[in-house]
Write a structure and sequence with these properties.
The protein contains 4 helices and 4 strands; from the N terminus they run H-H-H-E-E-H-E-E. By secondary structure, the protein is α+β, with helices and mostly antiparallel strands. The strands form 2 sheets. Strands 1-2 form a two-stranded antiparallel sheet. A two-stranded antiparallel ribbon has the order 3-4.
């Protein structure tokens, strides 16, 4: 019986909500784990001798396998990270880079939060 992969992607919320959610979760993870934030993983998967052999033969490192699992398209029992998916991810990174450069130009940004409510925001000078 073949185990079908479950897509990790949810409906894309607005960019603001996605970035805020990611930052908030990173802060929570940082404090819960005593300053250590582990890489995102759903579940630890067993690594077979076969995949280790194929990775070595084909020059595919663990980091590339992790990228395929994180950003690849789920196709039954495979995660496919092809040019289309790579281009999509690079576009996301470029958008985020643009936002980060804008924040840097402002000298930083502060967002005040209380009880899961966004209270105010201002430029940090």
């Amino acid at each position: 019986m073949t185990k079908l992969c479950i897509s990790k992607r949810r409906a894309q919320p607005g960019l603001f909500r996605a970035v805020f959610s990611k930052i908030k979760q990173s802060i929570i993870d940082y404090y819960i784990n005593g300053g250590y934030v582990p890489p995102e993983t759903e579940q630890a998967m067993a690594i077979s001798k076969h995949i280790v052999s194929r990775m070595n033969t084909r020059g595919i490192g663990k980091a590339i396998v992790d990228l395929a699992l994180a950003y690849g398209r789920c196709d039954k029992d495979k995660y496919v990270l092809d040019r289309r998916e790579v281009d999509r991810r690079l576009d996301e990174i470029n958008r985020e880079r643009g936002l980060l450069l804008k924040v840097r130009d402002k000298g930083g940004v502060v967002v005040v939060v209380a009880d899961d409510n966004l209270i105010t925001t201002y430029n940090k000078h």
